Amino acid sequence: MTTRRTFLAISGALALGVLSMRGAPSRQAGSFLVLPYVQIGPSPGLLRWEKLDILWHTADTDARWAVEYRVGVAGEWRRAPASQFHRVAMPGVEPHRVYRAVLRGLRPGARVSYRVLLAGRPVFESETHARPARSAPCRVILVGDCADGSQAPPRVACRMASEKPKLIVIAGDIVYGQGTIGQYRERYFPVYNADSADEEHGAPLARSVPIVGVVGNHDVGGAALDRYPGGLAYYLYFSQPLNGPRLSPRGTGATPVRGSDDAVEAFRAAAGVSFPTMASFSFDYGNAHWTCLDANTYADWDQPAMRSWLEADLSSAPRGAWRFVVFHQPGFSSSRSHFSEQYMRRLAPVFERHGVDVVWTGHVHNYQRSLPLRFAPASGSKGYGPVAGKLTLDRHFDGATVTRANGVVYIVTGGGGARLYNPEQQDDPSSWQPFTARFVADAHSFSVLDIAGRKLTVRQVDEHGKERDRFTLTR
User: Fold this and answer.
1) How would you label 325-352 residue by residue, b for 16+ Cβ within 10 Å and e otherwise?
2) Which of 324, 349, 446, 449 makes the best surface tag, with the fewest CB within 10 Å?
3) Which pTM was predicted?
4) Residue 329 CB partners (closer than 8 Å, separation 6+)
5) What is the C-alpha separation between 314 and 353, in angstroms, rounded?
6) Range of the domain at 381
7) Residue 77 domain flag
């Protein structure tokens, strides 16, 4: 089947052919605005019987939708509980529906086939995997700064698919430039949920791999809803844990929404409980605890309520699990671009106190890896510019023969597709900060994490399949 470049305009529905993930194209058709995709859902912790969410978008008309699924290759098809939807009806956007079905009772790590039915007929079929148990090895891809409408994101997506991950985490700036509904339709879903894998169009990732989104500055760039109809689509299109700080929609720390009363109220009605709670959250996946933070400047992590949530979340991570923190704006970067935006490094003592292993960020459109480090911010450090303090580096760690780190490793992996930053610095170590061990800026790339018990192997793979960095951490 030929991959389609664009999906249906919001004003109507188009019958799309879909591809069975077992390889045979299906000519059965359903009316989708956005084809079905997998999400981890609201459960933050591992479960004895796992769950997954299947989401898809349709026009705002009544129809008999259902989802069936089976575990393994020979299991019996069973019907998921009745699909629910929330309605998106905002000024400047044609009303549509976001459906959600929950696959329940899944063995951890199990292979799961699912199919979406319209009026009793299967119109889409794919397969995925349940969240793995803590004892199971797991491959995760982490990348930032992705869907900008250029030709780089499809190449990166195609290469990502070849690595066969079980989870993808996007470290912010999921969709350029304002994170609107239209930009998701044009730049995100066609690339990461393409019908087949090729470097021109993308790959069928989202239908088979849960993608977790972490909010970046461009994801909230459309918060002026009168100017950017359909802005803040992040809060409409992801199903993720809602266990973050308890924020009021108009309170400190929440994404500031602007516009007419009608536009703001329509957005809040469409987002429901996801706004503003889903901006920060945590979840477990295999033997890793992931803490995802909103690092935009309105989210002040010096505020006691937000800081106490972060401390409590990190301290509650399962014993023996890898502890990862993900946010968009890096505190430690050598790039000339965004160099002064160091405010998130004030959280370094919190990460060190709770045994965080790696902090993952985007925002800077290249790849950088730090030496393991400890940082003590100068007393009274405030604001959103440079942050002075005492830096201690573990220069013995090499990630190959010495794999136990004395400190936190900070990774910038912002090479997901947007225009690359500072390639002139790649071969000029004199321009790097003392903490930087690796700097790659001549190709788009992503991080591949192989988590196996007390061993973590990280590879940085570029859009051409070349390995640009590799290191191992052991505990």
Assistant:
1) bbbbbbbbbbbebbeebbbbbbbbeebb
2) 349
3) 0.94
4) 172, 216, 217, 295, 296, 338, 341, 343, 344, 361, 363
5) 9
6) 133-474
7) no
